[in-house]
Design brief:
The structure holds two protein chains of two kinds. Chain A is of the alpha+beta class. Chain A has helices spanning about 40-50, 90-100, 105-120, 135-150, 165-185, 195-200, 220-225, 230-235; strands at about 1-15, 15-25, 30-35, 55-60, 65, 75-80, 155-160, 185-190, 205-210, 210-215, 240-245, 245-250, 255-260, 260-265, 280, 285-290, 295-305, 310-315, 320-325, 335-340, 350. In chain A, helix 2 runs parallel beside helix 4 (about 135-150). The longest helix of chain A has 18 residues, at about 165-185. The two termini of chain A are about 30 Å apart. In chain B, helix 3 (about 60-90) runs parallel beside helix 8 (about 150-175), helix 5 (about 110-125) packs across helix 8 (about 150-175) and helix 10 runs antiparallel to helix 13 (about 255-280). Chain B is about 75% helix and about 0% strand. Chain B has helices spanning about 1-30, 50-55, 60-90, 95-105, 110-125, 130-135, 145-150, 150-175, 180-185, 190-220, 225-230, 240-250, 255-280, 280-285. By secondary structure, chain B is mainly α. The longest helix of chain B is centred in the N-terminal third of the chain and has 31 residues, at about 1-30. In chain B, about 30% of the residues are buried. The chains are: A alpha+beta, B mainly alpha. The interface of A and B includes residues 50 and 83 of A. The complex binds adenosine-5'-triphosphate and magnesium ion (MG). Chain B: This is Sugar ABC transporter permease.
């Protein structure tokens, strides 16, 4: 059942077309994450949903009601801002209860709600403090608490964790996930941290230049990207992209020619007409260093040891550098010649207009 | 060693400042204790506190003190209230915003004497003033502002002069207000009035304190407007302390009493400052 439906949404700033026809439907209780490069329109989309920016075309429907032209206060949404935007002259308690007081909720009810929210976010001891007497993480929790007390239909978050240090960010991320589990409320979350996107989201929306590039579960996006843009955007280190200059068909098998090395690829995994050339996308963990019988050869340029694993940067015959994930304590030396085995099942092909032309086989 | 060098280097400015302050003050104190009337030169004998007694028992003293305080408080209220309201109104972008801002701020650049002359001759004059013209065209009897409501007339002139200062400070302060806070309030269901009441006004506490402090310093000593327009009259109706002192010194040539009045004015300023700092000063320390 679609809860929030966005249809053909457009947003023009004075001389910039920021949203170019966004179509998206979100189910009740879903955790949706918007990611994309800086300036792609994530905040604009979120703010348009919130009603802080007016749309220039298209509709937004929430719970069966058209809210496109509605004032933001009437939309029943709550937003957590990147700067927290706490009211500086009010105590934490007053910050939490502001919306309820404006809505003329009875005092006893306000107190009960503030009490339960502050207990669940560990703000009890801070209720009488002013925002400037709080740490960044505490401010963040107040901002989240302020959104929760109102029991909105949808929570909107605009990069809520980006002002926190790395350790706190991990902790708050977990708290958010827990919160979503507990409340079950629909959440829309903007970030450009892909770890946040992958760990929090039920579905991820990838935006690029004001358009939706792909929508899917984190795993779908990771294994079956629609385009080269998504493939490169998701995953660290990036997916390796190697050009195949010539493709020849032999029965049910395609032979991809990577500058002299041949890789066999099942023909039934390619959609549509057979291409003459393609770009082969392989993630670092789907390449393995082998003693012999590898698919491609290269020379180690540099090894990055991360403790739990190592990434070998390997120069191929065409002077391109690819990244291969290796075991943590593998004895790799610079300038060593290596053989690389390709996991064909996890390999994707892109055509010259950067769209994907292959499908990943169902997992068995 | 280091310390004494610091002191040595600081000494010239400290000494200069001391001289700057001490000499006029001690001369005023000295003059206030001797008979010093320009009409009777040479009879400068010590008279103790007699000058203070003369000044305080002067028939103009009570009206002058009360007029000073009324003028101060009324102008403060008018400039702060109108200043906040107008700056909030012109904060949102609209067509011609730049010009409106310049026009609102420009009275500040007009000299007090000129300001008083404009109001006296162009606005409040009972024959060819604009107020009279308005009254006439409404079929009413024109009012002679300066003689019917002298203190009120001075208050209007001084407020007109100082409102731009308040607006200047408040407009600048409003520009530093966080827009995300306003958006958050908007999403919390706040109307424009709520945002003004619960976010903008608290945001302006400190600038209001600054405006009140600075204006107080100048408003305790308003002189040119009174001198040019009402001349302190009719009677003592628009005489404030500064004008009374001028009256003593230059119209009655009694420097001794004028000095005593000056010292009293210093005392009054300190009393006002004491209450003011207690009332608004805490906003400055936040
Ligand atoms: N008020 C505005 N007027 C004109 N252009 C704007 C305005 N706000 C945003 N834009 C433009 O719209 C585009 C999208 O902006 P938006 O803030 O949505 O980016 P974003 O995806 O949130 O980026 P980031 O990750 O850096 O926050 C940008 O190119 C920006 O320059
Ligand atoms: Mg943004």
């Amino acid at each position: 059942m679609t809860y929030l439906a966005i249809t053909e949404l457009q947003k023009h700033y004075d001389n910039y077309h920021a949203l170019r026809g966004i179509n998206l439907s979100i189910d009740e209780g879903e955790f949706i994450v918007f990611v994309g490069p800086s300036g792609c329109g994530k905040s604009t989309l979120l703010r348009t949903i919130a009603g802080l920016e007016s749309s220039s075309g298209g509709t937004i429907e929430l719970d069966g009601r058209d809210i496109t032209e509605l004032a933001s206060s009437k939309r029943d949404l709550a937003m957590v801002f990147q700067s927290y935007a706490l009211y500086p002259h009010m105590t934490v308690a007053d910050n939490l209860s502001f919306a309820l007081r404006l809505a003329k909720v009875p005092d006893a009810e306000i107190q009960e709600k503030v009490r339960s929210v502050s207990a669940s976010l560990q703000l009890d001891a801070l209720l009488e403090r002013k925002p400037k007497e709080l740490s960044g993480g505490q401010r963040q929790r107040v901002a989240i608490g302020r959104a929760i007390v109102r029991q909105p239909k949808v929570f909107l978050f605009d990069e809520p964790l980006s002002n926190l240090d790395a350790a706190l960010r991990v902790q708050m991320r977990l708290e958010l996930a827990r919160l979503h589990k507990k409340l079950g409320t629909t959440m829309i979350y903007v970030t450009h941290d892909q770890v946040e996107a992958m760990t929090l989201a039920d579905r991820v929306v990838i935006l690029n230049a004001g358009q939706i590039e792909q929508v899917g579960t984190p795993l779908e996006l990771y294994r079956q990207p629609n385009s080269r843009f998504v493939a490169e955007f998701i995953g660290t280190p990036k997916m390796n992209l190697i050009p195949a200059d010539k493709i020849t068909r032999k029965d049910d098998t395609l032979s991809l020619d990577l500058f002299g090395n041949n890789i066999d690829f099942p023909a039934n995994r390619v959609k549509g007409k057979l291409p003459e050339t393609a770009i082969v996308g392989i993630r670092p963990e789907h390449l393995t260093l082998v003693e012999e019988g590898g698919d491609i050869q290269g020379r180690i340029e540099l090894v990055e040891h991360l403790g739990s694993e190592a990434y070998a940067h390997i120069q191929l015959a065409n002077n391109q550098t690819i990244i291969v994930k290796a075991l943590a304590r593998s004895e790799l030396n610079d300038n060593q010649e290596v053989n690389i085995k390709v996991d064909v099942a996890e390999t994707v092909l892109f055509n010259e207009s950067d769209r994907v032309i292959s499908v990943i086989p169902e997992e068995v | 060693m280091k310390r004494s060098i610091t002191r040595l280097l600081m000494a010239p400015s400290v000494i200069l400042l001391l001289i700057w302050m001490i000499i006029p003050l001690s001369m005023t104190i000295y003059f206030s204790t001797i008979r010093y009337n320009l009409l009777y030169p040479g009879q400068n004998n010590f008279v103790g506190l007699l000058n203070f007694e003369f000044f305080i028992t002067d028939p103009g003293f009570i009206p002058a003190v009360s007029n000073t305080l009324i003028l101060l408080s009324t102008v403060l209220i008018i400039t702060v209230v109108l200043g906040v309201a107008l700056s909030a109104l012109i904060d949102k972008p609209f067509f011609g915003q730049g010009i409106v801002r310049v026009l609102l701020i420009s009275p500040f650049f007009i000299m007090p004497t000129v300001n008083a002359l404009i109001w006296k001759n162009m606005m409040m004059n009972p024959v060819y003033g604009i107020f009279a013209w308005i009254s006439n065209s409404l079929g009413l009897e024109p009012i002679d502002w300066l003689s019917t409501y002298p203190l009120m007339s001075v208050i209007i002139m001084v407020s007109w002069q100082w409102l731009p200062f308040a607006i200047l400070v408040f407009v600048t302060a409003l520009q530093s207000q966080d827009t995300e806070q306003k958006e958050a309030a908007q999403m919390d269901g706040a109307t424009g009035w709520h945002i003004f009441r619960y976010l903008t006004i608290p945001h302006l506490y400190r600038p209001i304190a600054v405006v009140v402090m600075i204006e107080t310093i100048f408003l305790l000593a308003v002189f040119a407007e009174i001198f040019v327009s009402t001349g302190g009259g009719p009677g003592y109706d628009s005489t404030n302390l500064a004008y009374l002192i001028y009256n003593q010194a230059l119209l009655q040539y009694d420097v001794g009493v004028a000095s005593a009045g000056g010292l009293f004015a210093v005392l009054l300023a300190n009393i006002v400052a004491f209450f003011l700092i207690r009332a608004v000063g805490k906003n400055l320390t936040v």
